[in-house]
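Example record

Each entry pairs one chain with its bound ligand, pyridoxal-5'-phosphate.
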Amino acid sequence: MLMQIIFSLRVPPPGKGALYIRPLLIGSGAILGVAPAPEYTFLIYASPVGDYHKASSGLNLRVDHKSHRAHSGGTGGVKSCTNYSPVVKSLVEAKSSGFSDVLFLDAATGRNIEEASACNIFIVKGNIVSTPPTSGTILPGITRKSISELASDIGYQVQERDVSVEELLEAEEVFCTGTAMVVKAVETVTFHDKKIKYRTGEEALSTKLHLMLTNIQMGIVEDKKSWMVEINGCDE
Ligand SMILES: *Cc1c(COP(=O)(O)O)cnc(C)c1O
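Structure tokens for the complex follow.
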């Protein structure tokens, strides 16, 4: 009887969002110096989250042409808290002006797009889907990888390469990827005083890719890629 109750308890209930799992490793030993911590604490947060995709319409990004989130040789390619403090000021300012996120440019030339504060970015033009390369200054997101694979499965040519701001402004569609948002369409990009609007909604490739990935995640379509991991919990 008790086992049956546990089996039927799903957090959150099916169709009501997802269980977000976030592992975290922090140095926790007693030390004041600049040195590796003598002790580490490994924590895992598990929290139900609402459906990010349905919660709002597309993203409105502002291109930051002054500050950068990561530099070559730094920690930009690692999921480290050191990558968030450089973005906070720019993000707070953008949000107070009504934007949803900031899009950062490469620190070396300031000409190419990198990623937003916590998600990767793709642009679409015709049959070509392009995303900046993972050369150390952007996070190599797992959703970025999955979405690249799914887009190429349905016949798009996926290119990992430098993407200039000019190309971003001339794209037909732009979208972002990350575990929490899965895939989210970018509705507008603002660069200086230019505001560009992109394709969103039913017609958009991002809508199709979102459905493809969530259908695999929820077991609605067969997972031919072995992306799903079965966790044996209370039945053992
Ligand atoms: C978490 C994160 C992403 C997305 O990574 P996923 O593995 O797809 O969740 C992209 N960029 C940054 C800076 C991030 O922190």
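The longest strand covers residues 18-27.
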